[in-house]
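STRUCTURE:
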């Protein structure tokens, strides 16, 4: 993401959104979608933590989002933003576990984690 784009997005985010929703919007802006060939073609997402860090400390974002995904408010987000958030969480957990695997996250993994979170929220309610 070019510096001018980051500044424009930052301004837009600060002016239009507040709280968890603004953080989700920023994470979505810093998440790319793609495809990867691993025997077959898989859809992937990848969070650009460097760009995200232009907006907010990545560790702070992780703590806030980790708490937010346990609430019903998370389920009110559009599905694509939910997937971006899950990609961010998976990326951060890989870092937390000092995983040697870096890069894109398969949509299947994101979908599975999202289903587990959704079930947990409904069971809690």
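SEQUENCE:
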């Amino acid at each position: 993401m070019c510096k001018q784009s980051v500044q424009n997005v930052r301004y837009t985010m600060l002016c239009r959104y507040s709280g968890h929703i603004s953080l989700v919007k920023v994470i979505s802006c810093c998440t790319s979608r793609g495809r990867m060939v691993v025997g077959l073609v898989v859809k992937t997402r990848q969070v650009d933590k460097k760009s995200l860090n232009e907006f907010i400390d990545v560790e702070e974002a992780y703590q806030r989002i980790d708490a937010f995904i346990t609430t019903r408010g998370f389920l009110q987000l559009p599905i694509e933003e939910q997937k971006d958030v899950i990609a961010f969480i998976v990326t951060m957990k890989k870092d937390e576990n000092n995983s040697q695997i870096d890069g894109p996250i398969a949509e299947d993994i994101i979908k599975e984690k999202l289903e587990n979170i959704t079930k947990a929220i409904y069971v809690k309610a």
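REMARK: The radius of gyration is 15 Å.
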